[in-house]
UniProtKB/TrEMBL annotation:
SMART domains, per the entry: WD40
Positions annotated as WD repeat: 62-86, 135-178, 179-233, 234-282, 283-334
InterPro entries noted in UniProt: WD-F-box_domain-protein, WD40/YVTN_repeat-like_dom_sf, WD40_PAC1, WD40_repeat_CS, WD40_repeat_dom_sf, WD40_rpt
Alphabetical keyword list: Repeat, WD repeat
Protein name: WD-40 repeat protein
Source organism (scientific name): Reticulomyxa filosa
Length: 401
């Protein structure tokens, strides 16, 4: 269930405007932390180039993986900040890397799935550095991959420069269907969230599930997994779409259910309603392409709508990470500015709720780290939990579902 603020804290929040609360918290945070706003110097670096990030826990270890323009996939132990594995089987840039939920769920194996400009999707075992499978039916580079939320991650979808989306059966290594319709490269693909009443109906147990795709053709399309039919086409972005994300059904009471977030080279983030097929909000403020958008694990008390709203987050080549109230198209809540000397643009981000190894270190109910990847380095905000707690203390709440 969602943890909300108590009545006393709620009354304090309502007494101050959002702008006043933000300013007070920023002032206090600077004084307490004594560091530059939006930038924490005590971080750890993993030297990479173009990077994407994923996270998992395996045998009580907390791991992240990264894919890079150096054609490698690397695995890191978060607790030790040590690289524990390196895969160099790809012959081109690695555009996506994900821990395989299918192999973990069914075989308790720690396997990474990665896609590349070399037109392949590869599965590699982290423990023995063994390549297990290769999917090679795309005719151009594979830009994004995603495991199904249903059937234990047995199915994988992929988007490619060849303008297609493919649906794969990981268990049999077969291409089940190729979705055609986009007129340009498909940069982002996502499966719809797991349903509470999932009963594995349909040919592949995907009845009621959809795939969302974002393309260079400036459209977002939704496809039915079972019938393979295109259901919806969203138009509105003025340039190609870099990323799409489904809202969680569990967060319906705070503006996320039946929604899709998108980011674009038109410098905007947009929110779409799946039921009506209409654009709900547009968030402007970035000065360059927006590579990543995410529903954050935080909510804000939005007095205008008389309830709580989810906070969304976006990462851009303008070297900023910006936070927005999903129910308001007003100015951003806050922006983190990267170091111009180190970063050449932010390409991805991921919120990770880490296990506490030492309960004595922190007693707050928020232990969330923010990782992001740039053109040059992958930064671990090693103090981001303190940043988030101090900055968002009185205006945001962490979600526990």
């Amino acid at each position: 269930m969602t943890t909300l603020s108590n009545e006393k804290q709620g009354s304090i929040q309502q007494a101050l405007s959002e702008e006043e609360r933000t300013q007070i918290i920023i002032t206090n945070w600077i004084r307490i932390s004594n560091i530059k706003l939006g930038w924490i110097n005590d971080f750890n670096k993993f030297i990479v180039n173009y990077v994407i990030i994923d996270y998992t826990t395996f045998n009580d270890c907390q791991l992240i993986c990264s894919g890079s323009a150096d054609k490698t996939v690397r695995v890191w132990d978060i607790e030790t900040n040590k690289q524990i594995q390196l895969f160099n089987g790809h012959l081109g840039y690695v555009y996506s890397a994900k821990f395989s939920s299918y192999h973990n769920y069914n075989y308790h194996r720690n396997v990474i799935c990665s896609s590349s400009t070399d037109k392949t999707i590869r599965f590699s075992d982290v423990n023995d550095n063994q390549q297990l499978q290769v999917f090679n039916e795309h005719t151009q580079g594979v830009l994004d991959i995603e495991f199904s939320s249903f059937n234990g991650g047995r199915y994988l979808c992929s988007g490619s420069k060849d303008k297609t989306i493919r649906l794969w059966d990981v268990e049999t290594s077969k291409n089940l269907h190729t979705f055609n319709g986009h007129e340009e490269s498909v940069w982002s693909v996502k499966f719809s969230p797991l349903q509470n009443n999932n009963n594995n109906i349909g040919v592949i147990g995907g009845n009621g599930y959809t795939i969302c795709s974002g393309s260079r053709d400036k459209t977002i399309r939704i496809w039915d997994v079972e019938t393979t039919k295109q259901l919806i086409e969203f138009k509105g972005h003025e340039k190609w779409i870099m990323n799409v994300k489904y809202g969680s059904n569990k967060l319906g009471n705070i503006g996320c259910s039946n929604t899709i977030l998108s980011s674009s080279q038109d410098n905007s983030v947009r929110l779409w309603d799946i039921r009506s097929g209409q654009q709900i909000q547009i968030f402007n403020g970035h000065k360059h392409w927006i590579h990543e958008v995410e529903y954050s694990p935080f909510v804000i008390n939005n007095i205008e709508v008389g309830g709580f709203s989810n906070v969304i987050c976006s990462a851009s080549l303008d070297k900023t990470i910006r936070f927005w109230d999903i129910r308001s198209n007003k100015d951003q809540l806050h922006a983190i500015h990267a170091d111009a000397r180190e970063d050449k643009g932010i390409l991805c981000l991921k919120f990770i709720s880490l296990k506490k190894k030492n309960e004595e270190k922190i007693n707050d109910n928020c232990d969330i780290h923010l990782y992001y990847g740039s053109f040059k380095v992958l930064f671990n905000y090693s103090l981001i939990k303190y940043f988030l707690i101090n900055f968002f203390k009185n205006i945001m709440q962490s979600l526990y579902i």
